[in-house]
Amino acid sequence: MSWLEIDYDEDFWLEVPLRWTIGAVEPWEEDDDSRTPQEWATETAELWWDEWDEDPGEGGIEVLADTLVACVERYPKMFPGFEVLLYLPAPDSIPLPVFVGDFQSTGQEEPELRRVTLADDEKAIEKPIVEDFTTEFLGTGLRVLRYSVEDEKNVVLSSLRYAWRNEEHGRDVVVITSSPAPAQILSALDDIDDLAHSIALRHNDYIAPETEDD
Questions:
Q1: 132, burial (CB in 10 Å: exposed 0-12, middle 13-18, buried 19+)
Q2: How far apart are the first and last CA of the chain?
Q3: Tell me, what's the pLDDT at 206?
Q4: CA 198 to chain centre
């Protein structure tokens, strides 16, 4: 059995607890944490503002906590079984959700990676920007930046997707994010690239290397 390892920078990435993402699809025994989304969000908002070392002002913590609760309620439903990370470069910024998941490989590699990244989306406003993307752990895959219009709201949506095929594990790994504010994606692009570079597939018998703190 394989599992995803994501080594994200805790200065601006926040992970939605797995019991509300992966655990919503299949049983997950992460820990004995029994906090409600509201309790988790409030404690996290307090810690995030403390780390930022600025005065949140009146209602600042509550606003962030309410935003995080909304994220927990909404985002795990969008891609069930995917891990959800929130890009939050400042406690008063709007979180950008990034979804990371893996599934059993099927079909031929190139057509399948193009399919899951929407590389050939005919509804795109302009031709999607398709690039090879190579990481140390997952090899060479695709990165696709694309712009489309939401039919119901007539809003331009900017989306960024990555996909790799890992032959060793027989799994495809996908990273997905989107925003109605294209500048939000572009300003976060380098940090999302770094996040993608950190993703690895591990076996259950994998032993992490010791660090200086161990």
A1: exposed
A2: 26
A3: 47
A4: 12
DSSP classification of residue 89: S
Q: What residue segments make up the domains of the chain, in order of their start?
A: 2-203
pTM > 0.70: yes
Here the tokens at position 71 are 């994220």
Neighbours of 24 (CB within 10 A): 13
- Cα 88–Cα 69–Cα 54 angle in degrees, nearest 5: 45
pLDDT band at 31 (very low <50, low <70, confident <90, very high): low
pLDDT reported for residue 54: 79
Cβ(180)–Cβ(170) below 8 Å: no
At 49, list the tokens: 């503002």
Question: Within the chain, where are the H helices?
Answer: 37-52, 60-78, 109-116, 182-198
Distance CA 58, CA 45 (A): 14
Q: What pLDDT does residue 150 have?
A: 76
Rounded distance, CA 132 to CA 178, Å?
19
Q: At what angle do helices 60-78 and 37-52 cross, to 10 degrees?
A: 120
Eight-class DSSP state of 12: T
